[in-house]
Design a protein that fits this description.
Elements lengths: L1 E4 L4 E7 L2 E7 L4 H22 L7 H6 L6 E2 L2 H16 L26 H7 L9 E3 L2 E3 L9 H19 L4 E5 L2 E4 L9 E6 L7 E7 L2 E7 L4 E4 L2 E4 L16 E6 L2 H13 L4 H7 L4 E4 L1
Helix pairs in contact: 1-5, 5-6, 6-7
Amino acid sequence: MEITENEHYFSIQFRAMASPCEVLIEASSRKDAKRLGKITRNEALRIEGAFSRYRDDNIVHKINNSNGEPVQVDSETANLLNFADQCYALSEGLFDITSGVLGRVWQFDGSDKIPQQSDVSALLPFVGWDKVNWQSPWLSLPARMQIDLGGIGKEYAVDRVVNLLRANTDAPFLVNFGGDLHAGAAPTKQVAWIVGIEAMRKTADAVNTIALQRGALTTSGDAQRFLKKDGIRYGHVLNPKTGWPVIDAPASVTVAGNSCTESGILSTLALLHGADAETFLESNDVVFWCQR
């Protein structure tokens, strides 16, 4: 954990959930900034440890290796599964936490390695939340299927940290976990936190700056994870029904909301709606920015 200080606030930086994490906070002293930084980092690492599908010592690993046997989950996991279940229903199956198995054939590393249709089709029988038996607190996952909570985990971590910081300080702060942000309050020396949205196609450092006083901003896009072949760019957001990248999706979608969990699912669903992303967001009456 690294702590730096400027004229108005302390910056606390560390890595978690495969992302750079930072908190800007108007702490009363360096000692206080360190205390709040530890709270932030510990919670981020706790959530990563609890829900990462790349570990072999957590509930996700237990579920993914249950071979069809029912698994009893704790209340926190149950709440996340309930949220995933709601998102699946509201999106008519576009948001599906069982679609992570498609990563076996899709490696979005910037290369031109597009999988064969036969390889994608072979995995589709193992995708589909409707095939899972979820009766809280018991989950029965068919053999060879997996769940992946990565689509909601980082946003959930931001919201958890925001609640913890509010319980431990009255100071204004901004939490930023890999571009998913939440401002607890506006800074005292200026009207708002000034946030830049990264340009997705190398046109500028930022295509927009946003004055964020309070609340969340999340961005979903394909800046870092994509494939390109024969002039066609394949973004990393996959349609779980076809197993292929969504057609005509925006380069990025940024959504403002009351929480990162709320705005994060909206920005993800917008990408999943492809050419209809803006129509989807307008129908949900949210503040958003799209890059195409």
